[in-house]
Amino acid sequence: MTGRALTVSLAALSHTGRRACNEDAFGYWQGADCLVAALCDGAGGHGGGQAASRAAVTHVLEAFALHPEVSLNALQRLVRGANDAVVAQQVAGTLTADMRTTIVVLLLDLHGGTALWAHAGDSRLYRWHDARLLGRTRDQSLEQHLRDAGLRASAAAAGQLTSALGSPEGFDFEVLETPQLLASGDALLLCSDGLWSAFDDAEMARSVIGCSGVQAWLDRLEAGVQRADRSDQDNYSALGIWCAAG
Predict the structure, then answer these.
(1) For 90, how many CA atoms within 13 A lie in the half-sphere containing its CB?
(2) Residues 163, 138: contact at Cβ < 8 Å?
(3) Strands 180-181 and 114-120
(4) d(Cα 108, Cα 87) in Å, to the nearest integer?
(5) Interacting residues of 39 by C-beta distance below 8 A, sequence separation 6+
(6) Percentage of residues in the chain with pLDDT exceeding 90?
(7) Distances in Å between the alpha carbon of 80 and those of 15, 30, 45, 59, 204?
(8) How many CA atoms lie within 13 A of 15 on its CB side?
(9) For residue 239, what are the β-bridge partners?
(10) Which of 29-33, 93-97, 135-139, 198-202 has the lowest mean pLDDT?
(11) For 101-159, how does the pLDDT look when each residue is reduced to its tens digit (9 = 90+)?
(12) Phi first, then psi: what are they for 121, rounded to 5°?
């Protein structure tokens, strides 16, 4: 696959919402010709979510920086290693004993203009080109499974994950096996469910239209969450990436 070199602009946001603490974590590392980005959401209902999300993001960034490689094998190693990092910090008899976190990881080859991504749980990656939404990751959640089966998802199903990092016995994650060729005008968004759940599908698809830059886009998304003014607003975080010709 032959592509064209890209440059990227990034912006991020992360807020506690109406929760006591922020259990989301995110970060990125950029080398001379590649980039890794990761976002995690400490799973509700499990103590130590903040520690789990930070452990997973830290592992992904540090491991990639040591061996910057944009490949399917490298991506799978990073996600499995993040799970091991969470498990390694679990301590019996404490809040961390059964801690869990979602994850979404993006690898970008800036020289070749290709991308790979993977996720576990319901943190998402969206992709646009010239303000047209091309798609997003599929949630690993009870709600998504019910919808796939043609059943109505009840309120009780909301937020119930079917996979997450933190299991010593292993876990399921979805990975993009074929590198995607990006182009100038592409926009990518990694976000937690506290953000995307504030928008319906049409609103999210339109969110990038007319924005002057990546920071203006993130400001618009944040304003949308605040406008929703939900009494149970979860932590919400996002990392936006705009691509231009290198």
Answers:
(1) 20
(2) no
(3) antiparallel
(4) 27
(5) 24, 25, 26, 57, 103, 104, 123, 190, 191, 192, 237, 238, 239
(6) 84
(7) 27, 21, 22, 10, 30
(8) 13
(9) 12, 190
(10) 93-97
(11) 999 999 999 999 999 999 999 999 999 999 999 999 999 877 766 666 666 666 555 66
(12) 90, -150
**Residue listed under structure tokens 């937690």:** 192
Structure tokens at 207: 């969110």
DSSP line for the chain = -----EEEEEEEEEE-TTSSS--EEEEEEE-SSEEEEEEEEBPTTSTTHHHHHHHHHHHHHHHHHHS---SHHHHHHHHHHHHHHHHHT--TTSTTTT--B-EEEEEEETTTTEEEEEEESS-EEEEEETTEEEEEPPP-BHHHHHHHTT-PPPGGGTT-BS--B--TT----EE--SPEEP-TTEEEEEE-HHHHTTS-HHHHHHTTTT-SSHHHHHHHHHHHHHHH--TTPPPEEEEEEEEEE-
| Residue 158 to residues 50, 139, 155, 217, Cα–Cα distance (Å) | 20, 11, 5, 27
Domains of the chain: 6-245 (3.60.40.10)
Burial class from Cβ neighbours inside 10 Å (0-12, 13-18, 19+) for residue 106 reads buried
CB 71 within 8 Å of CB 116:
yes
